[in-house]
Amino acid sequence: MVKHIFITGGVVSSLGKGLTSAAIGMILERRGLKVSMQKLDPYINVDPGTMSPYQHGEVYVTDDGAETDLDLGHYERFTHAELTRDSNYTTGKIYSEVIARERRGDYLGRTVQVIPHITDAIKEGIRSGVGRGTDVALTEIGGTVGDIESLPFLEAIRQFALEQGPDDVLFVHLTLLPYLRASGEMKTKPTQQSVGKLREIGIQPHVLICRTEQPMTEEMRQKISLFCNVRKGAVIEERDVDFSIYEVPTMLVAAGLDDLIVDHLGLPREPRTDLDEWGAMLERLRRTTETVEIAVVGKYIELHDAYKSIYESLAHAGIASGVNVQIRKVQAEDILEEGLDLLEGAHGLLIPGGFGERGLEGKIRAIQWAREGGVPFFGICLGMQCATVEFARNVLGLDRAHTIEHSPDTPHPVIALMEDQAGVDKGGTMRLGAYACDLRDGSRVRALYGTDAVRERHRHRFEFNNAYREQFEENGMKVAGVNPERDLVEIVELPDHPFFVGVQFHPEFKSRPLQPHPIFRGFVAAAVQRARGGGRSTSVVAPRALA
Length: 547
Ligand code: GLN
Prior knowledge:
The protein has 547 residues and is of the alpha/beta class. The chain has 18 helices and 23 strands. Strands 13-12-14-15-23-22-21-18-19 form a 9-stranded mixed beta sheet, sandwiched between helices. Strands 5-2-6-1-7-10-11 form a 7-stranded parallel beta sheet, sandwiched between helices. It has a 3-stranded mixed beta sheet with strand order 16-17-20, covered by helices on one side. Helix 14 links the parallel strand 14 (348-351) and strand 15 (377-380). It starts with a strand and ends in a 15-residue tail after the last helix. Residues 353-355, 381-382, 405, 459-462 line the site of glutamine.
């Protein structure tokens, strides 16, 4: 019998519900239990694929090619739960399914309603997210209790618990205890009201996790317990972490949450949660004193969530190299206006993926600076495409070389659509999900991965144009990874540079704190070398005029 945990949030959004859910998944996994993780999002978009990063942060891509919520990134970084397109449902996806059934006549002339048709579809969605062999399935409900759009989801999980039986379901509610500086106290009222809302719907949370800035006093715990009808021992404090989000699981275990969960769900008390390896990793992190600085030049740089997995991956690689990775966030457009001084002193340059023209020339300029100055460079997706364009213009001398995404009439379309893609519409035509990549013998990436074939996740439309492949290779930019089925260039590198790698895929989706991604590892290690060698990173060649 699969046990279910539902995690809701109250008081305010952005409490770190995704992170807390992931941490709960992890501590159960470290007790030898197999977990599934799922997110239900109340917004109406069918998936976040079409949403602006400003609205939603990064779009996280699963192996099977689903464009999902970034919380799934936390799930994969903390647990080994297998994530698929069934791991993320939105209101839009649920309604599309119900409406499609209605059009097919599946409801046999009945009136189609929120209860039971939408709530049934949500419950089906919850069941579909449970992977094979799962002991505990965790489902996080996005949004905040009290939102109109969350209601069908909350109603569905209430029904789910009724059908499943009280011992097999645990409701966890995450809230905030705001600290009022003026009176110097933390307030419990918003938590009481949020739990009140849940109880109105018919959900009595079993566990309250309270985000706090200050320690929770015994008296407050007592008060929350009384007003919210939750056992005192199940009122858990989750204090702001001061140095790493990876402390959250350790903190929850210290508060006894792991025992509480297994006891409630009737799961075995043994084995105990084993956080030894995790704790050792945190300890290494805590002891680190050396710092390297990586410039990330992007378009959505003001918003941390837009490049979340990239920042995390850099941190993981830092842990492996025994350094703190400090990130210098640089707005790509500013490079054209304010110049390369913005990059001065950085020990590495990373250009993430992206869409749209804004900032493109700034990215290309930054890449030229890194290539000519011997500064370690890592280009991801659009970052790799920009590196190709830069090399074409400035090394191959191909005037106005470009990607056809932004310059359909360029005389040198070094990034283009493949023949079989030409003429297709924009919507739903991206190359999404995991594809095979064969690594070339003797390449840097071959050595870093330690294997000759990998699978990596994609989310893009345009490709390296094979018509130019020979010209690039002859002039020093080597093709180091190729998709064997369609002969698509997946990785380029400059062997004569301290570290210069561009990848068409998104390695940031596969990095974990204890298993940093090999290319991130190699990149940060190269940045460390540069930092130790004095770290001079000014251009050795006078910058050329921009194309
Ligand atoms: N815009 C580019 C493409 O569609 C790159 C996409 C990305 O960086 N994710 O090919």
